[in-house]
């Protein structure tokens, strides 16, 4: 069980992030670049000293500036896997994995046997004697994983573990990592920019922006009700903020939107891009929401196309390539956006 409140004061970042993780639980930290995600991991590992707060693991205090308690990194029961793996280039895979055990005083032969067994469990028997330069990216990733796990840490920290891999390798390793984490009895903290990684691997998601936590919950809870523009962009939704009076929300920055339920006060409204239809001329429709706008951009996304529309309100619609061709959306100009109130999700801010 990890019970931490990470408080740091750095040159460009003031960080205050409580992080609590149960045994066997996986918590994913997400947020924009510079938000403080990797900084949290480094602080939990003891690589950065806290300015305030505390870090406790399984009831043992690892750090508390107020009580002048600080356990150095090498004495913490923590395993950390860095984004670029940081394997020693002059060591074989087996020696890389055994390094942590040897640093903890395990006898050489026992450390080697334990390392070999860890590599075999991860399907790496064929690279035990190979050095990192002779391995593929996926093999290096699994060696780094074995090194992080071999000491049986009570806290496992994973910093963008899949970011350096190509798509095909990433899919395979994501499945493998999911199996490893399901078997882990450690408290597991994963930093990622990839929503799919978070949804596939994590029990809970914690979103950090500007050094603080702005949203936390299960992947389903966070994706269903984004509470910041970053989260909305992450899940591919339009997020509008405004003041509700009944079923009508006056959107901050101009415009209004009709929502399915009567609300009051400051609210957030989520509009799926796929629920928005676009037209060159004002359509004859019973839909509650219809707005004129200017085409701000057209972006191909797989077999769909995102059309960015300047409002008010500003929105993105998702349409087929056929619609782009029929309406000549690449030419820019004015269009009309239409969405049914029933397709809008609204909730208090």
What is the CATH third-level topology name of the largest domain?
Rossmann fold
- Uncertain segments are none
What is the residue-averaged pLDDT? Answer: 93
Strand content: 35-45%
Q: Assign the CATH architecture of the largest domain.
A: 3-Layer(aba) Sandwich
Q: How far apart lie the N and C ends?
A: 31 Å
- Computed over alpha carbons, the radius of gyration is 25 Å
**How is the largest sheet built, in terms of strand order?**
7-8-9-3-10-11
Helix content: 25-40%
Helix and strand composition category: alpha+beta
> What count of helical segments does DSSP give?
9
Relevant terms:
349 residues, five-stranded antiparallel β-sheet, alpha+beta, six-stranded mixed β-sheet, elongated, single chain
């Amino acid at each position: 069980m990890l019970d931490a409140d990470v408080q740091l004061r750095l040159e460009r970042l003031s960080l205050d992030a409580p992080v609590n993780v149960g045994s066997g639980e996986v918590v994913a930290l997400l947020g924009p670049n510079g938000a403080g995600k990797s900084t949290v991991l480094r602080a939990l590992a003891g690589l950065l000293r806290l300015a305030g707060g505390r870090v406790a693991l399984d009831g043992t205090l690892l750090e508390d500036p107020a009580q002048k308690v600080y356990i150095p990194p090498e004495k913490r029961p923590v395993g950390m896997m860095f984004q670029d793996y940081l394997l020693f280039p002059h060591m074989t895979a087996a020696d890389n994995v055994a390094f942590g055990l040897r640093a903890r005083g395990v006898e050489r032969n026992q450390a080697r046997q334990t390392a070999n067994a860890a590599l075999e469990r991860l399907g790496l028997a064929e690279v035990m004697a190979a050095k990192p330069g002779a391995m593929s990216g996926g093999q290096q990733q699994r060696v780094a994983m074995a090194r992080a796990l071999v000491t049986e840490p009570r806290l496992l920290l994973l910093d963008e573990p899949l970011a350096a891999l190509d798509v095909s390798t990433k899919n395979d390793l994501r499945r493998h990592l999911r199996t490893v984490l399901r078997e882990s009895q450690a408290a597991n903290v994963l930093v990622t920019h990839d929503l799919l990684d978070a949804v596939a691997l994590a029990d809970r998601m914690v979103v950090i922006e500007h050094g603080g936590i702005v949203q936390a919950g299960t992947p389903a809870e966070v994706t269903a009700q984004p509470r910041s523009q970053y989260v909305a962009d992450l899940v591919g939704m339009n997020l509008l903020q405004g003041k509700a009076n009944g079923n009508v929300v006056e959107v901050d920055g101009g415009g209004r939107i009709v929502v399915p339920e009567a609300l009051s006060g400051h609210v957030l409204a989520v509009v799926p891009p796929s629920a928005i239809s676009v037209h060159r001329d004002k359509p004859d429709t019973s839909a509650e929401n219809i707005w004129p706008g200017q085409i701000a951009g057209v972006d191909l996304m797989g077999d769909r196309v995102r059309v960015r529309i300047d409002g008010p309100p500003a929105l993105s619609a998702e349409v087929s390539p056929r619609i782009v061709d029929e309406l000549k959306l690449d030419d820019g100009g004015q269009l009309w956006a239409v969405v049914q109130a029933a397709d809008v999700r609204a909730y208090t801010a």
